[in-house]
C-alpha cells in the first residue's frame, strides 16, 4: 500500500510542467486506475495440513491522456487517447473549445 501511495499523488495525474525554449509550457495529464483482489478457501486437513489457502493482489495502471499547452494567455489541450466513442465523452472533449469560444466572445463584447 505504501508503494501505491508513493506512485499515486497529484504529480502523477497532473505532471510537472515542461517549458520549451520558445516559451511554450507543456503539462502532461494522466489517468490512474487501480484495483485490488483477494480470496481464500478452507481445505480439509487431508488435502492440506494448514487447512487454508488464500491470496491477494493489486495492480496500478498509469495512462497518458492529454497535454495542456500554454503559450502566453492561451491554453489548448491535445488528447493522446483515441477519439471519444460515447456522447458523454464527446461532450467532455469539447468543453475546452467551448470555453475558448465563450472567452473569445466575451472579449469581443468588451471591445
Word description of this protein:
This protein is of the alpha+beta class and 111 residues long. The protein has 2 domains: 2-80, no CATH class; 82-111. The chain contains 3 helices and 4 strands. It has helices spanning 2-7, 10-13, 87-110; strands at 18-19, 25-42, 52-71, 74-79. The chain has a 4-stranded antiparallel β-sheet with strand order 1-2-3-4, with no helix packed on it. The longest helix has 24 residues, at 87-110. The protein is elongated and about 80 Å long.
* N-to-C span: 55 Å
Q: Taking Cα atoms only, what radius of gyration do you get, to the nearest Å?
A: 23 Å
Low-confidence stretches: none
Structural class, from helix and strand content?
Answer: alpha+beta
The proportion of strand residues reads: 35-45%
Q: State the helicity in percent bands.
A: 25-40%
Described by strand count, sense and barrel closure, the largest sheet is: 4 strands, antiparallel
How would you write the strand order of the largest sheet?
1-2-3-4
Q: Tell the overall outline.
A: elongated
Assembly status: single chain
Number of strands: 4
Number of domains: 2
Give the averaged pLDDT, no decimals: 78
In short:
The protein contains 3 helices and 4 strands, in the order ααββββα.
Secondary structure layout:
Elements (H helix, E strand, L loop, with lengths): L1 H6 L2 H4 L4 E2 L5 E18 L9 E20 L2 E6 L7 H24 L1
Antiparallel strand pairs: 1-2, 2-3, 3-4
